[in-house]
Amino acid sequence: MSESVAVYGNDTRSLAEQAYDRVEELIVTLQLPPGHAFSEGELSEQLGMGRTPLREALQRLSADRMVEIQPRRGLRVTEIDAADYLNLLETRRVLDRLVAEQAARRIAPAEQVALDECVTRIEQAAACLDTNAFLQADRVADQLIEAAARNPWASAAAASLHVHCRRFWMVHEHRADMAHSAGLHANIFRAIAAADPEKAGQACDALIAYLVVFARETLDL
């Protein structure tokens, strides 16, 4: 098997893409917490992955500002800066509305069904207070919406911001209102699945407004 591509069932993503997803999960779930220093070799051994795809994934995570590459010193997971995070949310406000409105206009029938399923998944996760399931449902829905938007530039930019938001949520989950957040997310999913751009945009604005308030209260700003 070539190191560049792996095939597992219908999964033909490159190994670098798979490595990115696995390292992202370690960071979001705080198995690699903010400030944690590590080496490429240590991570390669932990994940059982080759250095080449892992290096590509780490370069991408560095571009997403999740990891700092320190020459001759290894790597470090970035810290969460309060002011920077609020700037991120303001940027996400614009991108999320754009992507959601385009997705609502362009969504295909199969994508509508899949997004409706995400509504059930995120509401069930919130009802059980299952943070991992909540974040996974959110991630799947984000990927569906990004694909439905048919705008790879906006989708790629939005996706990198969502990773930071999921990590922030995980760090401060003890102060979060998961049920309320799930309802706000579900409103976005439903509006897009219903092919209603106006409601999708409004639902995105409502979610970001909540996330800004949550961030300010959590960071005592």
Strand order in space, largest sheet: 1-3-2
Average predicted confidence as pLDDT: 92
Question: What is the strand tally?
Answer: 3
Number of helices: 9
Question: In terms of per-residue confidence, which ranges show pLDDT below 50 for 5 or more consecutive residues?
Answer: 1-10
CATH topology of the largest domain: Four Helix Bundle (Hemerythrin (Met), subunit A)
Radius of gyration using CA atoms only: 18 Å
Order of helical and strand elements: HEHHEEHHHHHH
Number of domains: 2
| Helical percentage | over 70%
Global geometry: globular
For this structure, what is the CATH homologous superfamily of the largest domain? GntR ligand-binding domain-like
**Class of secondary structure makeup:** mainly alpha
Biggest beta-sheet profile: 3 strands, antiparallel
Cα(first) to Cα(last) distance is 52 Å
**For this structure, what is the CATH class of the largest domain?**
Mainly Alpha
Supply the CATH architecture of the largest domain: Up-down Bundle
Structural description of this entry:
It is a single chain. By secondary structure, the chain is mainly α. The protein folds into 2 domains: 15-77, Orthogonal Bundle (Arc Repressor Mutant, subunit A); 82-218, Four Helix Bundle (Hemerythrin (Met), subunit A), CATH 1.20.120.530. It has 9 helices and 3 strands. It has helices at 15-28, 40-47, 51-63, 82-106, 109-127, 131-149, 152-171, 178-193, 197-218, and strands at 37-38, 67-70, 74-77. A 3-stranded antiparallel β-sheet has the order 1-3-2. Helix 5 runs antiparallel to helix 8 (178-193). The radius of gyration is 18 Å and the shape is globular.
